[in-house]
Design brief:
CATH superfamily: Ribonuclease Z/Hydroxyacylglutathione hydrolase-like
Strand content: 15-25%
Strand order of the largest sheet: 8-7-5-3-2-1-16
CATH topology: Metallo-beta-lactamase, Chain A
Number of helices: 8
CATH class: Alpha Beta
Shape: globular
Structural class: alpha/beta
Length: about 280
């Protein structure tokens, strides 16, 4: 796989980048603000992270033929053509499908992936090929990786194991989990990680707390355990799921757990975008 070969060649450089500061050049018409925006991309995930120095990190892009470009234009304006880093949490189409459109419209500085392969000729392999063709740097999303954004920072909480080149059809459990630490709020983006992954994160990060939790797997009962909620103690829970989706997301059990702890629930299907300062 060309993308895999490219990744291994880049690994020494990646170590340098993630152990120090990552700086991007930028220009902006308006003064940027530190904001995390949970985008309504129907049944899928997409989160735009912006800093007060103008850096932009996009976590997932929703499904193919989805509204990701419209949502980004609402946030960044029509003339914007730069995304500094794209984090693809895992290889399910409702998370990466819209990234084809993002690659076409925006200059992407780097792409972070979990390294899992899909079968030859799959759409996900096509996405990785598109990244490689554009000579975009590929970064490994592994627990402990920190991305310094000046006044704010991101940290990867999961996965811990390297699965570079392993062919895994369902890689929910290897979802990249992203934590954001800022002046106003902290947040955790769970991708499609399972309850077992929540327990792993709790063991590794016993002091982890988050004001905002984007619940795992679109509100499925495979995620968002009571123990996890007790551990990170969120004030706000974000659920990204489409109207009348075939999976029945969010599941009743998850809503009941959240409401029992008086956690404010915000669903992207009821709002165009959910913007929160961080």
């Amino acid at each position: 796989m060309k993308w895999l070969m490219r990744l291994w060649i880049a690994l020494p450089l990646i170590t340098i980048l993630i152990s120090g500061h990552i700086w991007w050049s930028h220009s902006a018409i308006f003064r940027p603000i530190a904001q995390v925006s949970f985008l309504n991309v129907d049944q899928g995930d997409a989160t735009l992270i912006q800093t007060d120095t103008g850096q932009r990190v996009l976590v997932d892009c929703g499904d193919i033929d989805g509204p990701i470009l419209t949502r980004l234009q609402e946030q960044l304006g029509f003339l914007a053509r730069r995304i500094d880093m794209l984090i693809v949490t895992h290889g399910h189409r409702d998370h990466y499908g819209g990234c084809f459109d993002v690659l076409e419209r925006y200059q992407v500085g780097a792409v972070m992936i979990n390294g899992v392969r899909k079968e030859e000729g799959s759409l996900y392999e096509g996405f990785l090929a598109a990244v490689t063709e554009r000579e975009i740097q590929i970064l490994p999303g592994l627990a402990g990786t920190e991305i310094d954004l000046g006044q704010q920072r991101l940290e990867i909480l999961h996965p811990t194991n390297q699965h570079w080149g392993d062919e895994i059809s369902n890689d929910n459990e290897f979802s990249i989990v992203v934590a954001g630490f800022g002046d106003e709020n902290t947040f955790v983006l769970m991708g499609d990680a399972y309850t077992s992954n929540e327990h792993e994160i709790m063991r590794r990060y016993p002091e982890l707390r988050a004001d905002i939790l984007k619940v795992g797997h679109h509100g499925s009962d495979t995620s968002t355990s009571q123990e996890w909620l007790n551990h990170i103690q969120p004030d706000i829970a974000i659920i990204s799921a489409g109207h009348d989706n075939r999976h029945g997301h969010p599941h009743t059990e998850v809503i009941e757990r959240l409401t029992s702890q008086k956690i404010t629930i915000k669903e992207t299907k009821h709002l165009t975008n959910i913007d929160i300062l961080w």
